[in-house]
Write a structure and sequence with these properties.
The protein contains 5 helices and 3 strands. By secondary structure, it is α+β, with helices and mostly antiparallel strands. It has a single domain, classed as Arc Repressor Mutant, subunit A, CATH 1.10.10. The longest helix is centred in the last third of the chain and has 35 residues. A 3-stranded antiparallel beta sheet has the order 1-3-2. Helices cover 69% and strands 13% of the residues. β2 and β3 form a beta hairpin.
Amino acid sequence: MSGLPATFAALGDATRFAIVERLLNEGELSAGTLLEGVTISPPAVSRHLKVLREAGVIVQRVDGQRRLYSVRPEAVEAIGAWTISHREFWEASLKRLEAALMEEMKRK
């Protein structure tokens, strides 16, 4: 995996985010299946899949003539760990702010 900046950059595009959401919800899918219900061309989908693969968000598996795609669990775990670490920071900051405000109110 290229790291979280590459992951977030890849997911920053609405089409790529939708592809990953679909793979998370439906599991491994072929490129042809991913084309169903979208209004972009097959080459465009191919380019989006390449960006996601290079960022380490998805993996490709060859099954005969088909290319099957799935989300890398490690990518989801890295995003989750990053989110949780930042959540803890903000919760602690908000608790300190609340304590400071309560102290200020007591002084008045």
